[in-house]
Amino acid sequence: MRLMNRTLVWLSGALLLALTIWAVIFYINMLDEVHDSIDDGLDNSKLLVIHEAAQDSLVLQQNTFDEGNYSIRKIGAKQARNHKDSYVDTLMYMENEKDFEPVRLLTTAFSLGKGNYYELKVISSMVEEDDLIEDLFYSLLWLYIILVVTILVINNFLLRRIWKPFYNLLNKLRNFRLGSHALIEPEATSTTEFKMLNDAILELLKSNVDTFNNQKQLIENASHEIQTPLAIALNKLQLFADKHQLTEEQLEELFQVVRALERLTRLNKSLLLLSKIENRQFEAIAPVNFNELCAELAEDFSDVAEHKSIQIEIVERGTLIRAFHRDLALILLTNLIKNALVHNHKNGSMVVTLTEKTLTIENTGSDVALDPETIFKRFYKGGTESKSTGLGLAIVHSICETAGIKIAYSFNGKHRMELFFS
Amino acid sequence: MKILVVEDEPEMIEILTGALAKENALVETASTFMDAIDKVTMYQYDCILLDINLPGGSGLQVLEQLRNLGKSDGVLIISARDALDDKIAGLDLGADDYLTKPFHISELMARVKSIVRRNQFNGKSAIEIGNLLIHPEEREVISSGIQLQLNRKEYEILLYFVANKDRLIHKAALAEHVWGDHIDEADNFEFIYSQIKNLRKKLKDQNAGIEIQAVYGIGYKLIVE
């Protein structure tokens, strides 16, 4: 739920409660005031009637409400003496409304000298409470709706504008990649909180980028420092072999050293590659056609396959094109195909199947399934191929992980690597 | 063939000058940035072997200086850094090729010769060896007036051997050059044998006057008969 909607939910709840409480208080107060004012009116009418009755005895004949808003009835002295003014709400049949409507009734007593006591009832039509409540309810409902809509509008227009720097920053953060050269440039804002957020994030990013760059530098320097002595050792040995007339035995021994050094070179390069992949340093992304890449690689490896009499088959059920770093795609496929060829046997087979979403490599090889838990670990060595670095599948795995590809190994007589592209 | 080696590591200088001297090249060296700037400004070279990391500056700045001077010396960058950025920057600044340390001497020679050839005669020069005449621009190999029918790999193998005449070529170096870096040590490079065998047969049938000899189990050597 978005921040502005969350406040809206709370506000509408609170408003509903506040308006309800206010309505109850308002209703009670208003009704009280209405009663007060009607009662004053009744009082006034009472005095007027009594005044008139003193002058016009006809008034005293009016003992129903038929002709006015009062009725008079003669009562005994004792009853009159105990009489107290009372105001009550009651119902009376109204001609105009053809219904019983609430009226306010004042019952009082008066005497007109000579021991004549009368009871006077004065009525005044009253507020219809159910109508009042209904009116009040609808008015309040309208008020409530208007308030909520107003808040909604303000939220959407004003808050959206106020929060714009925040969403902007969020967007930029989402697109930010460590290793890309551009640092985030937050939008200028006059809101203190956002300024603080911008500053804090910039500072954090800057220190992260610095660390990242240092790390990258360290890796590159380490590789530099290792590659140069390796180059010296390798080249000196090669020149030595050229310069001197060596016996087969001597040459063989010398090249055993060369091979060991070459292996060290490959290990160094593979480890560098792994850390580069994990640092997401391969970013240039362009559409890569995996079908074409597979065909190219099959051609590259055709001599290796021929030498072992391995049948390479490419089955194209669809065209697999994804945005990818081309070198990375090449490394991914090379490692998989090389793996399928090296860990194969004479007269074996390798089948690459491509669909629009998957790439599957199935190859013959050892009769035992590999452990799918450990094959992707670094320095895992399955077979007897002692010369492999044990990093090939680790590289495959980390490429898949950074590119969001699901990779699965299975065995059903043949070894099967399946890549699911999202 | 006049070559400048720009490199700060004394051992590397020794290796590079040693290997180049064997090809009768005139080799000069520069081991600092200022040295390199001085030499490329004053003299003309057929090929400059340029290290990126130099005391006092970067090899890329040497490239810039060359470009500013309007010079067209061939440049082969030799760097221990496999960083893609450097490679792209170097090639953008006009370097002809990029080689990452460590490398095989035979690979270095093949690249240097290719650069020198391209620079000296606009690539139009033909290579003469034994009874063979090779036109690298057209990828043509002619033996006594008859064109040899070679496939892509056979041609590349031949050119590699020709660039490394009389030099022991390690199987790994040949495999990497012709089949690509990623070929690694798959099955001890035995697969290259069948291509070599075919090439040998074609050379012999056409009386090419050169022979590719196997050197024990380690590699091969091209000999002019």
Strand percentage of chain B lies at: 15-25%
Q: Indicate the percent of residues in helices of chain A.
A: 55-70%
Stretches with pLDDT under 50, minimum 5 residues of chain A: none
Helix content, binned percent of chain B = 40-55%
Largest interface: A-B, 45 and 44 residues
Shape of chain B: globular
What is the level 1 CATH name of the largest domain in chain B? Alpha Beta
Distance between the termini of chain B: 25 Å
CATH superfamily grouping of the largest domain in chain B? Response regulator
**How many extended strands of chain A?**
11
**Secondary-structure content class of chain B:** alpha/beta
The major beta sheet of chain B can be summarized as:
5 strands, parallel
Question: What is the CA-atom radius of gyration of chain A, in angstroms?
Answer: 49 Å
The gross shape of chain A turns out to be: rod-shaped
Fold and architecture overview:
- The complex is a heterodimer of chains A (422) and B (225).
- Chain A has 422 residues and is of the alpha+beta class.
- Chain A has three domains: 148 residues, 2-Layer Sandwich (Beta-Lactamase); 86 residues; 135 residues, 2-Layer Sandwich (Heat Shock Protein 90), CATH 3.30.565.10.
- Helices cover 55% and strands 18% of the residues of chain A.
- Chain A has a five-stranded mixed β-sheet with strand order 6-8-9-11-10.
- The longest helix of chain A has 53 residues.
- Chain A is rod-shaped and about 165 Å long.
- The two termini of chain A are 28 Å apart.
- The mean pLDDT of chain A is 85.
- With 225 residues, chain B is of the alpha/beta class.
- In chain B, strands 2-1-3-6-7 form a five-stranded parallel β-sheet, with helices on both faces.
- In chain B, strand 4 and strand 5 form a beta hairpin.
- Chain B folds into two domains: 119 residues, Rossmann fold, CATH 3.40.50.2300; 98 residues, Arc Repressor Mutant, subunit A (Orthogonal Bundle), CATH 1.10.10.
- In chain B, helix 2 packs parallel to helix 3.
- Chains A and B meet through helix 5, helix 6, helix 8 and helix 9 of A and helix 1 and helix 8 of B.
